[in-house]
Amino acid sequence: MSALSQYVDRFVPGGLLAHLSTVAGFLLAFFLVARLMSERRAPANTFAWLLGIVFIPWLGVPLYLLLGGRKLRRLARDKKMLQSTVPAICVTKLGHVFEPVAKTVSAAGGFEPVGGNRIRFLLTGEDDFAELERQILAARQSIHIATFILSRDETGRRIVELLAKRAREGVKVRLLLDALGCFISSRGFVDPIRKAGGEVGRFMPVLPFTSRGSANLRSHRKMAIFDGTTAMVGGRNFAGEYMGPTPSARRWRDFGALIEGPAAVVLGEVFIADWCFVLRQAPDGVRRDAHAGGAPIRGDCELQVVASGPDVPGDPLYEGIVAMIQQAEREMWIVTPYFIPDEVLLRSMIVRARAGCNVNLIIPTKSNHPVTDFARRNFTRELIKAGGRVLHYDAGMLHAKAIVVDDRVAMFGSPNFDLRSLFVNFEVAVLVYTEPEIAAIRAWIGDLTTKCVPPTVRPRHLLTGVVEDVCRLLAPIL
């Protein structure tokens, strides 16, 4: 027995010690409730955590300390200092874009829209993989890649092999892996890159916990930047389910793009800020390695990069989507693998549907997460009742994320239409404001609809109703 334990046993009565523990627990719970109420999060999410902290403190308090953080204020401040500004010559005048959405995103902490871009959409996993391989081999100065999942399959091994090859040839290779999504592939599997002179970073390791919420706050961003001026961005991870050299029956349907021009420079700045946060490196040195400087004009496409997450003071992604929905007049199309909106998003969709706007939602018939399929049923049922249309993609797993409103603005990238993506994860999306590119996304959605079926109408039995209600209750923290 330690001297401290002997002292406590001798001079502190057991009842007093228990009383002090109770008071300390109450003060901790009070502090956490105050912190919880100060965070801007979905009301249902706040209510779920509040119930846990107040009524089951022995479980709710440690879970909140482990998983409950949504914004890391110091991180947001530090990363804002890391990011450089976009050259003024590239910033688009608001008259050239859909102003209500562009202003909302910028005011909430997002980047300004930038013109002078060229974009090509990557509609299949084979096209995405071929383009990734081509860009890796063509890079002359730097390769910066961030991903949520790097699989130890044929696709992952080929990417590691290519990155190691280019590192040996003198190209500056930096690979940033989410520590949870790449839990089994972020160490020895990528050693060939390290041995060849490249660098590998692990984003917020789960063990040991590096900060409050590190187990819960994941980087879901998927982007690759080559020589600082060409970027690939979308929903695909580095695994056979998402991409590969040859077609696969088990491959998921997804969406991505190759971007050249100032928007690629902005995406590069998002990566550099993430990298410097993880590796504690100076941004100026990383920026010099990335490219020779400048933001080349490559086309006429107007784009706006939206980075969101615990490292951004506001919620530009969420507020941008709310603005898109509320500004819709004729029609909106939402494509997502998981549909778990908060009350504001759902009510905005319902109001637009009742006002005569054609509200269309495309989701997979069955996703890879059955719990979210049960959780979405209440939401889709309410949307259909209000006059919205729900379509089930019936040709496999749909993992794509896209929104098109009135052919005036479109969005694609890594975020799902769920509370985790919108309020917790580190995400990156791209808003598109020019007509030809929006029309191309809309045409791709039209092709999706040829493989969609109406949802099966099932009577709400007692057991399934209970499961749906439980899943909906859990939805805010899924």
CATH topology term of the largest domain: Endonuclease, Chain A
- Determine the fraction of residues in helical runs and give it as a percent range: 40-55%
Strand content: 15-25%
- CATH architecture heading of the largest domain: 2-Layer Sandwich
Summed over residues and divided by their number, the pLDDT gives a mean of 84
Low-pLDDT segments, ≥5 res: none
Biggest sheet descriptor: 15 strands, mixed
Radius of gyration: 24 Å
CATH uppermost class of the largest domain: Alpha Beta
Number of helices: 17
Distance between the termini: 44 Å
**Which sequence of strands runs across the widest sheet?**
4-3-2-5-6-7-1-8-16-14-13-9-11-12-17
The best one-word shape is globular
CATH homologous superfamily descriptor of the largest domain = Endonuclease Chain A
Number of strands: 17
Domains (count): 3
Q: How would you describe the oligomerization state of the chains in this entry?
A: single chain
Structural class based on helices, strands and sheet pairing: alpha/beta
